Amino acid sequence: MKVLVTGGAGYVGSVLIPRLLDRGYRVDVVDLFWFGNHLPEQVGILKKDIFYLTTEDLGAYDQVIFLAGLSNDPMAEYSPSKNFIFNAAAPAYLAYIAKAAGVKRYIYASSCSVYGYTENELYDESRPVSSSYPYGISKLQGEQAVMQLADETFSVISLRKGTISGYSPRMRFDLIVNTMFRSAMKERLININNPSIWRPLLSIDDAATAYIRALEANPRLSGIFNIASGNYTVGEVGDLVRAALEERLGLHTKMHIKYIQDFRNYKVSTEKARNVLSFHPKDDVKSIVNNLMDNMEKCSDWDNPLYSNITTFKQMENGIELYSIAGVVSPETNAGALVGSTSR
Ligand SMILES: NC(=O)c1ccc[n+]([C@@H]2O[C@H](COP(=O)([O-])OP(=O)(O)OC[C@H]3O[C@@H](n4cnc5c(N)ncnc54)[C@H](O)[C@@H]3O)[C@@H](O)[C@H]2O)c1
What we know:
It is a single chain. This protein is of the alpha/beta class. It has one domain: Rossmann fold. Helices cover 36% and strands 20% of the residues. It is built from 12 helices and 14 strands. Strands 3-2-1-4-5-7-11 form a 7-stranded parallel beta sheet, sandwiched between helices. Strands 8-10-12 form a 3-stranded mixed beta sheet. A two-stranded parallel sheet has the order 6-14. β1 (2-6), α1 and β2 (26-31) form a beta-alpha-beta unit. α1 crosses α7, α4 packs parallel to α5 (134-147) and α6 packs across α8. Residues 6-7, 9-13, 30-35, 49-50, 67-69, 71, 86, 90, 109, 111, 161, 163-164, 170, 172, 175, 309 line the site of nicotinamide-adenine-dinucleotide (NAD).
């Protein structure tokens, strides 16, 4: 099977794609490489904006995975217009040309942020969604646009993911557990912005597993799925990160509890993903922290601007490219139709 992953050079793609290769899939990536390229050599890669892809480019693929866009609130708030273009219009355009090209399945990187601010209830996929801030609105718009293209010939699966954490070769330290881990290691301090806020968390490995389950699901299946390793309050996450570091490294960490108003608060049910996709998460906060400790030597340049999406994005918006990749690289071993068909 041949899979095209757009935005595949990011944090999620850099863990997912080696696992897809390991299962025997052929993978090509289209990406703008905002944060560099850490993909294995067998992957065909093309530096291009999704909007410049055409139906002809997609004809050779069985499935398309959308992982692109502005992937957090600070980026979306810094450039709301780009946010709505990249997060709402781009997935819709890509799904439209994928369907026209005869691609059989489209998997969309949605987010639990579509649930907005909820109170004391576990939300499943049938509950109303409501977001009032750019990132959440745009992820919902993207989801609604791609889902309405689903029919018996074109499967569309939307994975509403919780906040991901853990190590990726394309590292991010702007994700809840990763942020706490970084500040604990660097400053022996964990900041808790609001201890009572609920968040579904997802380990990077469980996230990759969810994409594999979606890719390998019954060809006629379409639908929306909540994907999380577990639901936690931010205060509890801080306690668990601190305990894991103390147990393994003997590290003593201070906590700074703040009460900053948050416009996101939700916990989600993952029953549908368990029952329909056979998605059984294996991780929790302790195993995420252990994964970070196992890989610490590869990312202990804590202040690398490429590890913070908003820092990199602001520099790019001001004309500074932190990482530049020279044109197109297309390994002979596995150059895909798209890469092969593109002039270099
Ligand atoms: N990381 C999380 O916690 C999380 C949670 C829920 C949903 N998501 C969603 O999952 C997806 C992947 O997240 P991530 O953490 O890997 O993001 P990331 O920021 O690490 O990677 C995004 C990648 O997309 C590329 N890109 C952006 N716009 C593009 C365009 N128009 N054309 C081509 N490439 C483009 C960037 O260069 C980058 O490599 C995103 O859509 C995000 O909204 C992420």
